[in-house]
Structure formats: structure tokens, C-alpha cells
User: Which sequence fits this backbone?
């Protein structure tokens, strides 16, 4: 019987593991391999250059620019959707008129692909007839033609706003689920004891929402690390690299400059950053499990 | 004794699907795989029609995978990296083909060129500049384009233009008249960077000449040389006087074309593919729009025409090289295929047997302009190596965003380009 089960386990696991090995593990090790070469992506000839590609990272102005933008992107991608999602969840929790409709509307963007979201917001930011400039023109009475995505000062922020608009719905749903787990009588006791609304939120609700916050932040970090497509659609890293992130920079070096070896070195660095963040996340998750589990 | 059960069937299916993942896919002997960027407004339907003619004539089945123009640049590299290049693919003649020739990823086509007698079919200037790499032929010039100043005829007629500006002073004067009438003289859509390159190309070619430009493209001159500063300063004067549309970096080339078509702007410096786009939206060549060559700026400088050449190449590891060669020879040699394709694409044919009457009046003028030019130069991102082109293309958009920083931009680009040439 046991042998029979083992055969089944192997049979069922083989297809997904094969796919995982071919599409994840093998490319990962290929990146490690090519990161110590000067391969250009075409042909099969290359030389081993040791750690030259990694040394180049430290003198690459565009890498530093991309690293700073990635940090801004990640911090904003964690803070903005988390706070907005929490705020919406607190507003829509309980018996709010039209609450279900609002929840649906706020959750809807997460069902769209990043490409569609990017295209919608590109139209919103369009300088001549976009929704944003039109609204500003109506309010101020002066024709507004600012090119939000084409100016280096606002390109990255504009994409972050679009990204946050999409991600907020996910945070909201997770917090709404967390709020249902908070006993109502506990909040009633606090109210009877004279705790004001902000005190109930700050000292009771938020601490009890810690498991939800951990999940929201983890998903935000993972999603922000994957946040390449929306940038590619909206700015392509431009104008002149002002919205480049590390993923975008890796793409440019590999596929636009044909420096696949150097691009692989950047991908290895990006992989190590992701690994570190995920490691920290799992440690925190264990702590939360110990306290709340 | 084996008995077939539902479980064993499922197991077999699972194993079969796993084997399918690992198994390589081979093209049939009578089949040629092809990938190209002739999609959407660039004439996928017309391309397929010509491919069908080849299939009927040869009995060879073409298996196609068209990819959008911008995405193609990445897609073909991914396929090369995976050692799965198609038998035939489209590519841009110049530095990019040179790059993959040096990577030994292409198959020479000298024998096919000789047997198909392409010497007597392909226009010599195009054959010399676009097909030869390291002394061998690797590409057939499927079509080529010419970059000129395309304009809205009604707008320029209303502005009092009786003859196209042949000199720089006449061009400036025209721009001033248009601006006074409240019309943006020049539309540019540099969101994807490359549309800005034609301004740099022509300003440098018309002031410093083709020889200096070739040196700059090869890394034998510097971006902070007086010649580059002079060319960019002319561009800066145009921007400072407000002759370009606002927010050029926010627009695509089709947005700029639309602005000219609507009459919001008067002119745009673009390749002949804009005629295919305009014809597709109902504009009539010679009636609604026309073009003039980029004006002369300095005496004694050879007259250069700028544009890209779209080619078809065969990968070094093609599964069906004979079929691929037949396809290239057919697509290049057949004047009917070339004429129909050029018309749909808004392109010019390098086939000397194509009747000029096959073109509309604007394209006939474009063909004549190229024929009369002293030299044909590839546009910037096809004339210099990809890493340097990336530096330069970003320079153009940075400069358009803030022309006052020109000196600093050129100094930085000189350093970056020098480093990029070493990569």
C-alpha cells in the first residue's frame, strides 16, 4: 500500500516539478552562470570574466539610480496600499450603506492585469486630454498640460500611484477579513470603559490586526519586487532612466544593449535582495505565529 | 498480465505530458519557420498575402510568428538565447545585423545571391550598404524607408508656402510664420525615443557631413566635439523658439502623425512608413499630405538621405536552409510581391524592376530623392552599436526635456558613449 502511494506521489509531483525545474531552477542557475561571462545574448561564444560584471555594478551610475528608485518603489508600494487598504477596511467594516458595492468597486482593480492598469493610467495622465489634467483645468480654470509620465520629477511617483490604486483592494480585503476576527464584545467593553474611537483603533484594533498586516506587507513586498510590467507599459523606465528600477535596468542592459552577462549579474543581485527580504519575512511570520497562533 | 485501468491511463497521460515538455520541436522538411515585426499598422495582412504566393509557388509551408515592432527586439534575443531562432527572421540592416553576424548567428547567402542573380535585381547603393558584412552577404533588403519632412498640405498652403523650404533659413522662416498663426510647426513623438533620432541624424549630416558622422558612429569621434555641439545647437534654437509641440516626450510617433493629420501641427520628420499609417486612416497622398527633403544647411556638404532598411536573414542553425533561401530569393526577386508589399508598408523597394508607377505620387518623389542623394545613411540606432545607441537615444529625450542643459548633456554622453564602445 505504502509503495503504491509512493508511486502516486511521484507520478503527481513529476509534472509540476519538471515545469518548475525547467522554467525556474534552470534559468536561475543559467543566470548565475552567465553573470560571470561577457555573453551578448546572441550566438554561443563568450569569455569568462570572473567577477568583473559584479565589480562594474559599483561604478554603474544607472545601477545606483535604479537601486534608489527600487527602494522608493518598494517603500511606497508597501506603505501606500497598506495604509489606504486599512483606511478603507475600517470605513467599510460593519453596516455601511452601500458597503458591498464599495467593497466590490475598490477590489475590482486587483482583478485587472498590470498591462490594463498601466494603459488606463497612461490615458488618465495624458497631457492634452487625460482625466487628471482635465480635472485640474476645470478646478483651476487654467489649461493644464503637464506631462506626468514624461517628466523626470513625476514619472516614478505617477506609476507608484497607479500601482497603489490596483494593490489597495487586496490590502482592504485582507484587513476586512482580519476585522471580522476581532470580537465585538471586546470593542463594546472598551467603549463602556470610555475609550474614544481613535483609542479603540490604535490600542485594540491595530494590534489585533497584526497577523493581517504581516500578510499585507508580505504580499506588497513580493508584488512590488515583481512590479516590472506596469513600469514597462507606462514609462519603460524613462524618461531618460528616471523611473528605472533594478528589474527595468536588468532588462535594458540585457535586451537593449545586448549585455546579457552584465544583465545576469544584476539579476543575481536582485535575486539576493529578494531572498534576504523573504528570509526576513519568514522570520517575522514565525514570531507572529508564536504570539497569535 | 497487464490490465488497463483508469489510473494507469492517467499515469501514462501525465508521463506523456512531462515528456512533451522536454522534447524539442523540429520543423518539417518542407516547412520554413519565420518570425518578423510586420504587424498591425506595418502591414501584417499584406505580408501574409505575399507569403501565400510563395507557398503556392514553391509548395513550401511557412510557419509564421509575427511579433510587434518594439517587442521583436526582445523576442528575437530571447529566442537566440534559447538556441531556437527561426529559419528566417526580419532584422534591421546596419549595426544590428553586424552585431549578430559577429556573433556567428547568421548564415551567409552569397551562393543564393549569385544563383538568384540578385546583383541585377537589388539597387546597388542599397546592396552595398545593407547586405555586406565582413565581406559576405547576409541579408536581402526586403524594403527600405526614407526619412523626410512630411507635412499637412492644407496647413502649409494656408501659411503661404508656395515651394518647400530648400534651405535652413527658408525652413526657419516657415516655422516662424506657422507659429505666428498659432500652429505648432513641428510635431514630434519621442516617448519611445527613436523618433527623435532623425533630427540628430540630419542636423549632423547637413553640417558635419557623412564622413564625420560615420566616425562618430564608429567611436572615432566624441560627442563633445565642436561638430556635434554645432548640430545640437541648431536643434536647440528650434526648441528655444517654440517650434516643436509641447510635451514631445509624452507622445508616440503616431500621436505626432495624428497632430499633423488634424492640422494641430504642420510637419513631422519621419520615415516613409508614415504614409502607410496615413493612407490607412483615409488620407490621400499628394492631396492631404506631402513631404520635402530635410533642408540644406551648409554648402559643400554631400547630400545624404537617411532611413532604415528592413531585411530578411537566415539563422546559422536553420532547420531548412534550402527552403529559407528559396523564400528570400522569391520575396526579393518577384517585382509584383515587392510592389504590393512596398505599397502596403508605405515603403520603397530595393528591387530595380519594380515599376515606379506602382508607388503613389509621394512615394515616387521619395524614391527619386533617395536616387538623387549622394549617399544613403542608416538612422542613428542602426548606425552605431546597440549599447551606444541606448546612450544616444536617452540623450535626445533628456535634451528635448530641457535644452538649456545641452553642454552638460553632451559632456556626460561623451564619457558614457566612450565606455559603451568598449563593452
Assistant:
Amino acid at each position: 500500500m505504502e509503495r503504491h502511494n509512493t508511486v502516486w506521489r511521484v507520478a503527481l509531483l513529476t509534472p509540476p516539478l519538471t515545469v518548475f525545474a525547467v522554467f525556474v531552477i534552470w534559468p536561475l542557475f543559467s543566470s548565475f552562470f552567465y553573470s560571470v561571462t561577457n555573453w551578448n545574448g546572441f550566438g554561443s561564444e563568450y569569455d569568462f570574466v570572473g567577477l568583473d560584471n559584479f565589480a562594474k555594478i559599483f561604478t554603474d551610475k544607472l545601477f545606483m539610480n535604479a537601486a534608489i528608485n527600487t527602494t522608493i518603489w518598494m517603500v511606497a508600494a508597501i506603505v501606500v496600499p497598506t495604509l489606504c487598504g486599512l483606511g478603507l477596511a475600517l470605513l467599510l467594516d460593519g453596516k455601511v450603506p452601500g458597503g458591498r458595492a464599495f467593497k466590490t468597486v475598490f477590489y475590482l482593480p486587483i482583478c485587472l492585469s498590470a498591462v490594463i492598469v498601466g494603459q488606463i493610467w497612461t490615458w488618465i495622465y495624458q497631457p492634452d486630454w487625460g482625466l487628471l489634467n482635465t480635472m485640474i483645468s476645470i478646478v483651476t480654470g487654467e489649461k493644464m498640460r503637464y506631462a506626468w509620465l514624461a517628466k523626470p520629477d513625476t514619472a516614478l511617483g505617477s506609476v507608484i500611484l497607479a500601482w497603489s490604486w490596483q494593490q489597495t483592494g487586496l490590502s482592504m480585503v485582507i484587513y476586512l477579513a482580519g476585522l471580522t476576527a476581532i470580537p465585538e464584545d471586546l470593542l463594546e467593553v472598551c467603549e463602556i470603559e470610555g475609550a474614544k474611537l481613535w483609542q479603540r483603533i490604535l490600542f485594540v484594533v491595530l494590534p489585533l490586526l497584526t497577523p493581517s498586516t504581516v500578510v499585507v506587507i508580505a504580499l506588497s513586498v513580493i508584488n512590488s519586487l515583481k512590479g516590472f510590467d506596469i513600469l514597462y507599459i507606462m514609462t519603460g523606465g524613462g524618461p531618460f532612466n528616471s523611473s528605472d528600477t533594478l528589474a527595468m535596468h536588468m532588462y535594458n542592459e540585457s535586451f537593449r544593449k545586448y549585455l546579457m552577462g552584465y544583465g545576469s549579474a544584476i539579476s543575481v543581485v536582485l535575486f539576493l535582495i529578494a531572498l534576504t527580504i523573504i528570509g526576513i519575512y519568514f522570520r517575522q511570520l514565525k514570531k507572529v505565529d508564536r504570539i497569535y497562533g | 498480465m497487464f490490465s488497463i485501468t483508469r489510473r494507469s491511463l492517467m499515469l501514462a497521460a501525465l508521463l506523456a505530458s512531462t515528456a512533451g515538455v522536454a522534447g524539442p520541436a523540429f520543423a518539417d522538411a518542407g516547412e520554413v519557420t519565420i518570425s518578423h515585426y510586420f504587424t498591425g499598422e506595418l502591414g501584417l495582412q499584406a505580408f501574409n498575402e505575399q507569403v501565400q504566393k510563395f507557398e503556392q509557388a514553391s509548395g513550401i509551408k511557412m510557419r509564421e510568428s509575427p511579433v510587434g515592432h518594439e517587442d521583436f527586439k526582445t523576442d528575437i534575443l530571447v529566442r537566440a538565447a534559447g538556441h531556437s531562432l527561426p529559419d528566417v527572421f526580419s532584422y534591421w540592416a546596419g549595426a544590428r545585423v553586424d552585431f549578430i553576424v559577429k556573433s556567428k548567428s547568421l548564415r551567409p547567402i552569397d551562393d543564393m545571391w549569385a544563383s538568384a542573380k540578385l546583383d541585377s535585381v537589388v539597387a546597388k547603393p542599397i546592396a552595398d550598404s545593407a547586405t555586406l558584412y565582413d565581406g559576405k552577404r547576409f541579408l536581402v533588403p526586403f524594403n527600405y524607408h526614407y526619412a523626410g519632412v512630411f507635412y499637412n498640405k492644407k496647413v502649409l498652403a494656408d501659411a503661404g508656402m508656395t515651394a518647400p523650404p530648400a534651405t535652413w533659413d527658408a525652413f526657419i522662416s516657415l516655422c516662424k510664420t506657422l507659429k505666428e498663426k498659432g500652429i505648432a510647426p513641428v510635431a514630434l513623438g519621442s516617448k519611445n525615443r527613436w523618433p527623435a533620432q532623425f533630427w540628430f541624424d540630419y542636423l549632423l549630416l547637413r553640417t558635419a557631413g557623412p564622413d564625420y558622422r560615420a566616425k562618430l558612429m564608429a567611436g572615432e569621434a566624441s560627442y563633445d566635439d565642436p561638430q556635434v555641439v554645432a548640430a545640437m545647437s541648431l536643434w536647440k534654437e528650434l526648441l528655444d523658439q517654440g517650434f516643436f509641440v509641447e510635451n514631445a516626450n509624452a507622445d508616440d510617433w503616431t500621436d505626432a502623425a495624428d497632430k499633423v493629420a488634424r492640422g494641430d501641427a504642420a510637419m513631422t520628420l519621419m520615415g516613409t512608413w508614415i504614409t502607410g499609417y496615413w493612407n490607412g486612416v483615409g488620407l490621400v497622398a499628394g492631396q492631404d499630405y506631402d513631404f520635402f527633403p530635410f533642408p540644406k544647411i551648409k554648402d559643400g556638404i554631400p547630400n545624404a538621405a537617411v532611413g532604415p532598411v528592413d531585411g530578411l536573414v537566415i539563422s546559422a542553425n536553420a532547420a531548412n536552409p534550402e527552403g529559407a533561401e528559396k523564400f528570400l530569393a522569391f520575396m526579393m526577386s518577384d517585382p509584383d510581391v515587392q510592389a504590393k508589399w512596398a505599397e502596403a508598408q508605405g515603403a520603397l523597394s530595393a528591387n530595380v524592376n519594380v515599376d515606379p508607377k506602382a508607388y503613389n505620387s509621394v512615394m515616387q518623389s521619395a524614391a527619386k530623392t533617395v536616387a538623387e542623394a549622394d549617399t544613403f545613411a542608416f538612422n542613428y540606432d542602426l548606425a552605431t552599436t546597440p549599447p551606444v545607441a541606448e546612450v544616444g537615444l536617452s540623450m535626445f529625450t533628456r535634451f528635448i526635456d530641457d535644452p538649456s542643459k545641452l553642454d552638460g548633456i553632451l559632456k556626460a554622453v561623451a564619457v558614457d558613449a566612450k565606455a559603451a564602445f568598449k563593452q
